[in-house]
């Protein structure tokens, strides 16, 4: 795991600009480095401050492969989200950056390519609002007054689903009966995949998958806007020995596994290939045509 730390005082964070300039992506450390020259930013009081580019906030890759290996700070702060072509999409305030980033990436993966953030462990609400205003002013100065799409009034994509409770995993048992055996779990798997249209057996939850492949499968299904259920194969209390039983049930060695109308559709690699070719949408969304992603 890679721990990303950009923890600052309020005064220091106010000097950090969210607008990338002549970025250069480094595949070795998975961040975008900026040139070492300086530029000026305006503080809340209107004073001109000189910012030296030798101490910058890195732009972190949010690709599926990289995202699962990064541990973001669990502090309050400000963050800016960019798409894969480095166009800024949203500037937000968060009481816990890690949760906000995971939610955005989970709900809108197509808009989340890179991230820049400033974490301030002891920030007050006023501190965060001041820093957010500073970052927004910096963006407006270089965008000709255009707001990031996610900050435009009436655009609810970045906030509309935050008020809805996350869909929870299906539990095979109540976790109390210690007499559950493998044959019972096998039968429960059959009942689950036949009772729901789409079922994904993953590691973790849909909101916080415990592996990159599970994360990617959930992200693909979410992007297609299909209704699906999840079962956590790591939950030994409620899903006794499910990882081993599932291998026999599906005759498939790996997890995640996606089922459609009672039959195994595939693991991560097959789901990824079907998605890229457009066939997955054609299969899961009635009336749609196969268009390559």
Automatic annotation (TrEMBL):
Gene3D superfamilies the record matches: Glutaredoxin
Pfam family, one: Glutaredoxin
Domain Glutaredoxin span(s) in chain numbering: 199-263
InterPro entries registered for this protein in UniProt: Glutaredoxin, Monothiol_GRX-rel, Thioredoxin-like_sf
Top-level lineage group: Eukaryota
Single GO cellular component term: mitochondrial matrix
PANTHER family, alphabetized: BIFUNCTIONAL MONOTHIOL GLUTAREDOXIN-S16, CHLOROPLASTIC, GLUTAREDOXIN FAMILY MEMBER
Protein family: Belongs to the glutaredoxin family. CGFS subfamily.
Name this protein carries in UniProt: Predicted protein
Organism: Micromonas pusilla (strain CCMP1545) (Picoplanktonic green alga)
Taxonomic lineage: Eukaryota, Viridiplantae, Chlorophyta, Mamiellophyceae, Mamiellales
């Amino acid at each position: 795991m890679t721990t990303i730390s950009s923890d600052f005082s309020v005064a220091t964070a106010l000097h950090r600009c969210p607008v990338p300039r002549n970025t250069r992506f480094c595949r070795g450390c998975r961040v975008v480095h900026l040139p070492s020259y300086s530029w000026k930013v305006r503080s809340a009081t209107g004073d001109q401050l000189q910012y030296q580019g030798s101490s910058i906030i890195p732009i972190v890759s949010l690709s599926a492969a990289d995202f699962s290996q990064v541990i973001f700070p669990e502090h309050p702060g400000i963050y800016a989200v960019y798409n894969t072509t480095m166009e800024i999409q949203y500037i937000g305030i968060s009481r816990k950056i890690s949760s906000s980033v995971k939610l955005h990436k989970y709900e809108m993966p197509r808009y989340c390519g890179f991230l820049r953030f400033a974490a301030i462990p002891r920030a007050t609400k006023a501190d965060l609002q001041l820093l957010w205003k500073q970052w927004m002013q910096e963006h407006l100065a270089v965008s000709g007054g255009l707001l990031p799409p996610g900050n435009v009034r009436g655009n609810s994509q970045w906030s509309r689903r935050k008020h809805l409770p996350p869909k929870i995993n299906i539990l095979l048992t109540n976790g109390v009966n210690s007499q559950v055996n493998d044959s019972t779990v096998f039968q429960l798997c059959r009942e689950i995949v036949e009772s729901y249209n789409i079922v994904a057996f993953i590691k973790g939850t849909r909101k916080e998958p415990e592996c990159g492949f599970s994360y990617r499968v959930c992200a693909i299904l979410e992007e297609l806007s299909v209704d699906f259920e999840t079962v956590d194969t790591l939950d030994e209390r409620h899903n006794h020995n499910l990882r081993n039983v599932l291998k026999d049930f599906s005759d498939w060695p790996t997890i995640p596994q996606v089922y459609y109308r009672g039959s195994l559709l595939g693991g991560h690699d097959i789901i990824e290939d079907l998605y890229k070719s457009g066939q997955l949408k054609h299969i899961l969304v009635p009336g749609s045509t196969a268009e390559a992603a």
